[in-house]
Amino acid sequence: MKKLIGVLTAGGDTPGLNAAIRGLGKASGGVFDMEVIGFYDGFRGLMQNRTVRLEGQRLSGILTVGGTILGTSRDKPNKMPVGNKVMDMTDAMIGTYENLHLDCLVCMGGGGTNKSAFMLHNRGLNVVTLPKTIDNDVAKTDITFGFDTAMGIATEAIDRLHSTADSHHRIIVVEIMGHRAGWLALGSGIAGGADVILIPEIPYNIEKVAQAILQRSRSGKRFSIVAVSEGAMSDVEMAKYERLIAGIQVAKADDNKEEKNRLKAELESFEVNQQTSTIYLANRLQELTGLESRVTILGYLQRGGAPSAADRLLATRLGTHAAKLIYEGQYGVMVAVRGEKIVPVPLAEVAGNRKIIPADHPWLDSARNVGTNLGD
Predict the structure, then answer these.
(1) 154 and 176 in contact (C-beta within 8 Å)?
(2) What pTM was estimated for this model as a whole?
(3) Which end is more exposed in the chain, N or C (fewer Cβ atoms within 10 Å of the end residue's Cβ)?
(4) By the 8 A CB rule, do 134 and 302 touch?
(5) Mean pLDDT of all residues in 338-349
(6) Sign of CA dihedral 64, 69, 70, 73
(7) Intervals of CATH 3.40.50.460 along the chain
(8) How far apart are CA 35 and CA 48, in angstroms?
(9) What percent of the chain is modeled with pLDDT above 90?
(10) d(C-alpha 8, C-alpha 140), whole Å
(11) What is the CA 46 to chain-centroid distance, rounded?
């Protein structure tokens, strides 16, 4: 009897998802004699048993298409909005899996998706995941598909901002996605020639950033480009954030619910304020330097459009290798990139972990060696 695979895409959309779906579907049907169905809109589609058979024409012409033909959502199995409630719908998803007689569920996603997939695996489902996110922060893989495309888009944006910054003698602060990891800002900042790059891994001192910009101005440079990751914080902000996190942990350990709730409310307020931190940064740099500052927030532009050649290739390799692993009966793993190889990594090593930029990473050395200010 043929194996039947279910596949879903969860979390934020990413260039290369359709290429991965295509790779999985074509290899499964054409090489390993397995069948594939897709679930619409992530884990919600698995809960509701909304499916489409992925074969033939469904897989034709999607290699170059951005987004995902299956749709996506950020809904989690154990925290699913249903009406006016948030409910644990894990049992309903297990029911769908069993009623369809699936042999494996393939989940394409980032950190949150891997956590959800690991939870389903622990409930007895055969699960394989593929690492996708523009943030490149999934643990235990060298790279995620979607990252290369997004980095190219952000780099082109920085390229274009150079001419207008030069014409008006301005500081231009460009906010780049990345969640709480700086891979996207650092990579595109180096490739685009940003003068300052601020990332979550290195809390910045705003006075040092201002001094670096003023030094450029005094040396005859008529503009400065500041590439800032959405999760970057100043040293003052980071100290406050760490104090709140530590306080919540202490209150939790002491079973002090009142103090824990107070600190959580303060943390929520802090995180809301951080949503406008890039605008605040630009205003402060203008005050400290006397130079006109402007802000560009790239936002969801970085997720859109056709995937790069590198992402099409990577997603295809990951999708086809997932089919091979399923055929061989290897489950409970993420299909990861290690050097030039594609290898299975236990989900237990991935779930709940995040890959951030280490202090000794060569990209940081390269940035400093070309004179880029990192805010420290």
Answers:
(1) yes
(2) 0.94
(3) N
(4) yes
(5) 97
(6) positive
(7) 150-302
(8) 20
(9) 97
(10) 21
(11) 22
List the catalytic residue out of 41, 75, 103, 135: 135
Residue-wise pLDDT tens digits, 175-208 = 999 989 999 999 999 999 999 999 999 999 999 9
Q: Which fold has domain 4-145+307-350?
A: Rossmann fold (3.40.50)
What's the confidence (pLDDT) of residue 107? 98
What's the CATH fold of domain 150-302? Rossmann fold (3.40.50)
CATH 3.40.50.450 location in the chain: 4-145+307-350
What pLDDT sits at residue 1?
82
Distance CA 69, CA 306 (A): 13
Q: Which two tokens stand for residue 306?
A: 């056709």
How are beta strands 293-297 and 171-176 bridged, if at all?
Answer: parallel
353 pLDDT band (50/70/90 cuts)? very high
Name 346's bridge partners: 333
In the structure encoding, which two tokens stand for residue 296, read together? 């560009």
Kindly state the average pLDDT of the residues 113-126: 97
137 is catalytic: no
- Phi, psi angles (nearest 5°) of residue 232: -70, 145
Scanning the structure block, which residue is given the tokens 């390229």? 159
